[in-house]
Amino acid sequence: MFYLGVDVSQTKLTCTLLLDPKLDKHKSKVVANSLDGVYVLVLWCGKLGASADHVHAVLDGRSPYHHLPATTLTDCGVTVSIVDFADVQEFGLPPAKQGKQSKPGTPDALALANYALAAQPATWHPPPAHVRELDALTAQRDALMKDRLCSQNRQKVAEASGAPVLVEKSIIKALTFYDAEIARLERAIKDHIYHHPDPPQRADYSDHAGGT
């Protein structure tokens, strides 16, 4: 098994692959934090002799930006673990530097890879694809509902303050748009639930359908 440390930021993935830990031999690469970036990373590992099914990747799980690379790596056949920074911060540093961090505020990729080798952290499993799709649909609907509420509050202020007719018409137009999009997403959510009636998740699905 090859161990891959992935230090995640919003726009990039800084990665280190352990090739021969006994000889402290490793390679590093930086790719974009995107689908294409992860595919480039998997191909790079393969060129170094580490096929996807023989790679164990470890990602720092503190930020929301790890979800896309973790899910995509899993879909590519890589074993993935998402770990707590506190468990990782001293791995990969020489004994004289234990207690210090090579990069302030975040573990580096080598530390994550060494932690994977030493600790063998548990495998992370993403939700099924259809559950991820439902979550995305409901998140978008909920975001639009919040935006609609903001516009509705602006409408009340506009009416009370005697705002220009153009402003009032603009708010009405926005509310009409929100109503149409929310209704469209509600139909999509109900259709999704109809086609994926997983018995263990029906309670959760009903919450999604109810807009809670």
Write the layout of secondary structure elements.
Layout: E1 2-8, E2 12-20, E3 25-32, H1 35-47, E4 55-60, H2 67-75, E5 79-83, H3 85-88, H4 109-119, H5 129-161, H6 165-195, H7 202-210
Parallel strand pairs: 1-4, 4-5
Antiparallel strand pairs: 1-2, 2-3
List the defining traits of the structure above.
2 domains, five-stranded mixed sheet, single chain, 7 helices, 212 residues, elongated, alpha/beta, Nucleotidyltransferase, domain 5
Report on the architecture of this protein.
The two termini are 43 Å apart. α2 links the parallel β4 (55-60) and β5. Helices cover 52% and strands 17% of the residues. By secondary structure, the protein is of the alpha/beta class. The longest helix has 33 residues, at 129-161. The protein has 7 helices and 5 strands; from the N terminus they run βββαβαβααααα. It has 2 domains: 2-119, Nucleotidyltransferase, domain 5; 129-210.
